[in-house]
Write the structure tokens for this entry.
Amino acid sequence: MKLRRQAGALKLKAVASLRRGVRAFNDYEEEGRSSTVLLHFQHSFEMLLKAGLVQRGQRVFDVRDGRSFGFEKCINLGREHLNITDEEAGTLRALGALRDDEQHWMTTVAEGLLYLHCRAGTTLFNDLLQRIFDDSLAKYIPRRVLPL
């Protein structure tokens, strides 16, 4: 598949953020760990959705306010243009809500819940990467690494 230049750059950002999220999940440092994990996972999906939308010729930038679309807008556009299912949108929204609560409030995400959402997120990321770009996460993660 021939990638549009901007789509390729956004896709690389998406993969880099997911890799950082997985690395943070597996880190031994506890302080700020769940916030870091959720921040990178949410960002990885926002960039992946934007990459897919740009690849399909959709706008991801609001010319009126000079800013790119937010996560929720990208999910909605992804449902319309990238065949994101209700279940997939729910997973994305749950990750976004956990990130928001963890970073902007005094919420602590239990380890089991963090694992559950990150495992679902890793699987979904690979599924979307395959569906949108005919690509695989295995291409970007060394074989010796077990993501979540």
DSSP finds five helices and two strands in the chain.
